[in-house]
């Protein structure tokens, strides 16, 4: 197959949702359609289970699953689909944000009863900022939930989306009869036990046809006719360009658990979802069909074997072909590296591959030379944008609890930070080290992994910080900036890239500081224009 054909047949996306909305179940059904798995239960949930096991066991279980489900690839009707796993738990939100830099589109799963939940809001906001095309799947239609129109309103208001229903439910919960597929103009009737089989659909080219009354009963048929009329009155026509530009979001209804409405979603997805898209680097926009290979690291996973400190760096291929045993430039180190066993990912396994294409993810064995955001190319100096650090929510001093193991501790911290587990800040005043994280769980992860993988022990100490802001000024020599540095010295630190960071102890003090020093800007992510 030609290079262009390979690119055009790839769809790389992520499924985002609040925990429990049905992401794992939907992933599994998609894989069933692709014939990539044979039975339910094959896809492991990356959820944090509380209570069943100790926290440490849980962390290890979670990490094991995280590598197993990082990328799930399968083929469907000649299309190569790569699903990138995104943890729903809020303590791992940063992982998800970074994974979103490597997807070309997303599917948002919403529980029909719970509606728009907290994590959905946060994740969709990130997608909107990046104009990522989104399709919404409203799940659990076999249960009582919100009225379809109310829920569509809620989605528009809370998520700031412009929805276009491409399917519509016929009843709900106990009375759920199926869905009318607006996109394909057919009806799919729900029998309640379609779990295993791929259901039959019935063509309904004209909703006025008496055939519909026979299928679902006269009352239900009339309600559906009214509702579909309302849909076409309220919502705009589907427009693929608008969807691709992130200005319009198609909506599907279904029940992942019952494998109902999933085929409709998948068929529409492979037709409209974007193939690999061009990507902005600091230097220029890079197109997928450029001959020269380039890609970037969006995830690093430590090997589960503590005796071998190998890691797997996940690279999203942006342009060209990635070939085994070919030297590529590690731009940050200005060094050529060759990879003898790059891994490609399939439904449940990974395999060494000779060649991969834009849209694909390869896993490269790494002994510590990569960090998140690194770019690999055939020789050109490119730095891909869009893998920023986000301002953490929690801050603690980290102390060495075993003086004999200081070296191990620093090495461990260094590598865990490269993996993106948390962020390290060093105080200007006294050189003390502060760990900032998005979730409190990360402190346990760090302590546990430092001990088990590096043989080092640490303790934490509380620190009153509300937000870390990256500081930017156009004139470092200005009196204003000098005064800021002098007055706020206690609150200044450096991140790992030696960028200046202001650790504000409260929202109020941040606002006061912003007012007092108007020529300085305070950013909540590490990457800014
Ligand atoms: P995730 O946290 O988003 O990955 O959610 P899961 O896929 O693990 O699903 C959470 C729970 O909802 C599980 O108990 C599923 O069996 C259940 N579930 C998923 N889809 C449906 C559905 O369509 N109907 C019903 N009734 N339950 C569902």
UniProtKB/TrEMBL annotation:
Pfam families: EF-G_D2, GTP_EFTU, RF3_C. Residues 8-279 form the Tr-type G domain. SUPFAM superfamilies: EF-G C-terminal domain-like (SSF54980), P-loop containing nucleoside triphosphate hydrolases (SSF52540), Translation proteins (SSF50447). Increases the formation of ribosomal termination complexes and stimulates activities of RF-1 and RF-2. It binds guanine nucleotides and has strong preference for UGA stop codons. It may interact directly with the ribosome. The stimulation of RF-1 and RF-2 is significantly reduced by GTP and GDP, but not by GMP. PROSITE patterns: G_TR_1, G_TR_2. GTP binds at residues 17-24, 85-89, 139-142. Keywords: Cytoplasm, GTP-binding, Nucleotide-binding, Protein biosynthesis. Its main location: cytoplasm. Belongs to the TRAFAC class translation factor GTPase superfamily. Classic translation factor GTPase family. PrfC subfamily. It is found in: Cytoplasm. It comes from Winogradskyella damuponensis. This is Peptide chain release factor 3. The keyword S-adenosyl-L-methionine does not apply. The keyword Protein biosynthesis applies. The gene is prfC. Signal peptide: none annotated.
């Amino acid at each position: 197959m030609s290079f262009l054909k390979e690119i055009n047949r790839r769809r790389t996306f992520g499924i985002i949702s609040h925990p429990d909305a049905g992401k794992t179940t939907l992933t599994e059904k998609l894989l069933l359609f692709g014939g990539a798995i044979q039975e339910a239960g094959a896809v492991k949930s990356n959820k944090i289970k509380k209570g069943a096991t100790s926290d440490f066991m849980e962390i290890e279980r979670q990490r094991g699953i995280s590598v197993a489900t990082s990328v799930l690839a399968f083929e469907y009707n000649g299309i190569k689909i790569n699903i990138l796993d995104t943890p729903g738990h809020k303590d791992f939100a940063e992982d998800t944000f970074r994974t979103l830099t490597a997807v070309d589109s997303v599917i948002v799963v919403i529980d029909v009863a719970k509606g728009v939940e907290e994590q959905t809001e946060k994740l969709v906001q990130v997608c909107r900022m990046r104009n990522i095309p989104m399709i919404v799947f409203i799940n659990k239609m076999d249960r009582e939930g919100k009225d379809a129109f109310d829920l569509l309103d809620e989605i528009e208001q809370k998520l700031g989306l412009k929805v276009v229903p491409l399917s519509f439910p016929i009843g709900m919960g106990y009375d759920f009869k199926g869905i009318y597929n607006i996109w394909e103009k057919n009806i799919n009737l729900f029998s309640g036990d379609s779990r295993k089989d791929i259901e039959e659909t019935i063509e309904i080219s004209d909703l006025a046809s008496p055939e519909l009354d026979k299928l679902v009963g006269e009352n239900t048929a009339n309600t559906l006719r009214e509702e579909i009329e309302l849909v076409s009155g309220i919502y705009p026509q589907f427009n693929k360009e608008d969807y691709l530009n992130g200005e319009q979001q198609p909506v599907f209804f279904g029940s992942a658990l019952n494998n109902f409405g999933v085929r409709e979603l998948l068929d529409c997805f492979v037709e409209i979802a974007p193939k690999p898209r061009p990507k902005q680097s600091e230097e220029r926009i890079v197109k997928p069909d450029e001959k020269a290979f380039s890609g970037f690291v969006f995830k690093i996973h430590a090997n589960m074997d503590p005796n071998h400190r190998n890691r797997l760096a996940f690279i999203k291929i942006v342009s060209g072909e990635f070939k085994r045993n070919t030297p590529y430039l590690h731009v940050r180190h200005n060094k050529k590296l060759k990879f003898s066993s790059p891994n490609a990912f399939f439904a449940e396994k990974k395999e060494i591959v000779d060649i991969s294409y834009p849209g694909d993810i390869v896993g490269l064995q790494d002994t510590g030379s990569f960090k998140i955001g690194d770019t690999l190319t055939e020789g050109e100096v490119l730095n891909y944008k869009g893998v920023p650090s986000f301002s953490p929510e929690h801050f603690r001093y980290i102390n060495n609890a075993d003086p004999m193991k200081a070296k191990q501790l620093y090495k461990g911290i260094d590598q865990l930070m490269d993996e993106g587990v948390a962020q390290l800040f060093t105080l200007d005043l006294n050189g003390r080290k502060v760990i900032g994280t998005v979730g409190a769980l990360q402190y346990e992860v760090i302590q546990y992994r430092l001990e088990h993988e590096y043989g080092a022990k640490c303790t934490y100490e509380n620190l009153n910080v509300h937000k870390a802001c990256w500081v930017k000024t156009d004139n470092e020599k200005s009196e204003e900036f000098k005064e800021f540095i002098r007055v706020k010295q206690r609150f200044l630190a450096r991140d790992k890239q030696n960028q200046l960071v202001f650790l504000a102890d409260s929202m109020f003090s941040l606002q006061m500081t912003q007012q007092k020093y108007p020529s300085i800007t305070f950013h909540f992510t590490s990457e800014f224009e």
